Amino acid sequence: MYQMLDPKTLTVLVTGGTSGIGAAAVRRFAGAGARVIVAGRRAERLKALADEFGDRIHTLELDVRDWDATQAAVAALPAPFASYNVVFANAGLALGLEPAHEVRMEDWDAMVDTNIKGLLHTVRATLPGMIARKEGHVVLTGSIAGDYPYPGGNTYGGSKAFVKQFSLGLWADIAGSGVRVTNIEPGLTETEFSLVRFKGDAARADKIYEGVAPMTGEDIAEQVFFACTLPRHVNINRIQAMQSHQGFGPLTVKRG
To answer: From the CB of residue 76, how many other CB atoms can be counted at a distance below 10 Å?
Structure first.
């Protein structure tokens, strides 16, 4: 019989763990018996997760855009959470759908600071420990937007293309170290993603999912769980998933 890893042997650090895909991953791993470190900025949601799972959860009120705070939080992890062997660098966001010449610069800055720099801070702070222990798994949240551009997706798509290429470069660096690398690249998934993108405009966010049954945070968390519980000699480089009614957009042709 094919032997998957026992999730009870995993200690999982999840950034962006208080909503959406991150919260679903926390619940999937903790529900299967793993220890989970949940990092996020919303204290009340962190407390709710800790109340739900008790001593299997350790919470970090943390903004991964802050390198010093991220480094300090990882260094101060208590036993038995200090020997984490999965890091899910999931914190990220999209802001707006304006064309490049109309976008607010602060929106671009926020996406770069979170989707790129926050991810780099997370990886750099956690990777040395896993390399030293010769066991671990880095999981990144990318997007189909890293491969397929769409109008208004300019910097968000660019940030996810960075995540894709960084994941491949990271694997080139550490292959054979005992640490695996996986990039999770979802398509249409209903979480708080669109509500954040449209800055609280629920009607506009709901229209994104109108007429289809989008994937859920739980669907994506299951992909993360699968990749992380495969035997350690197997590395899943990328998982790209789309809602079953979603396809590839046509190339844009501007007439006249």
So the answer is: 9
CA 125 to chain centre: 16
What CA–CA distance (Å, rounded) separates 21 from 218? 7
**Parallel, antiparallel or unpaired: strands 215-216 and 57-61:** unpaired
Chain-centre distance for alpha carbon 118: 11
Mean pLDDT of the chain: 95
Fold that domain 7-241 belongs to in CATH: Rossmann fold (3.40.50)
Instruction: Find the catalytic residue in 84, 148, 156, 209.
Output: 156
What is the arrangement of strands in the sheet containing 11-15, beginning at the earlier edge strand? 57-61, 35-40, 11-15, 86-89, 136-141, 179-186, 238-241
Where do the domains of the chain lie? 7-241
156 catalytically annotated:
yes
What is the reported pLDDT for 252?
Answer: 80
Quick: pLDDT tens for 125-143. 999 999 999 999 999 999 9
Reported pTM = 0.94
pLDDT in tens, 110-120: 999 999 999 99
